[in-house]
Amino acid sequence: MFVRQMLGLVLVLSLGCGSGSGYKFVPVSGTVTLDGKPLGNALVSFQPTDPQAAADSTYNSTGKTNEKGEYTLSNYKGQSGAIVGRHKVTITSVQTTVGTGDERRPPDALLPVERVPPQYNSETQLSFDVPAAGSKTADFPLKSD
Q: What DSSP letter does each residue of 26-88 carry, written as one string?
C-alpha cells in the first residue's frame, strides 16, 4: 500500500511540474540598429508562430533596448528568453514630441511619434528562429527607407 501511494505521489508530482506544454524557454538577446546607429529605448517583441503557443500570451517575450541598442528577452512572468521555434518580431520606439496646429490638443501637448517604420511593427515581416541553445545574436539592422 505504501509503495502504491509513493508511486501515485511521484506520478502526480511529475505531471504537475512545469507547464506540460513541451515549450522550452532559452536565452535570447541581440542588438537593434536604425540606419547603422544603435536604437535605444525600443521595445522588441517575439510572438511564436506556432498556433498553440501563439494562443497563450505566456509564450510572448519582450525586451527593451538600452542606449547601445542591446536587449534581452523575457516573458511577463519573468522567465528569461523566448521559446524555441519561429517567432514573428515587432520593434517599436515611440518618442513624444510637442504638438503644433492640432485643434483638438493644446499647442504644447505631447504627441507620440513612432520612430521605427511600419515594416518593422504594424506591418512587420520580421521573423526569427530561436534555436534550442538560444541566441546572443538576434540582431535587427533596420533601415528608415
A: E-BEEEEEETTEE--S-EEEEEE-SHHHHT-GGG-EEEE--TTSEEE-B-TT--BSEESEEEE
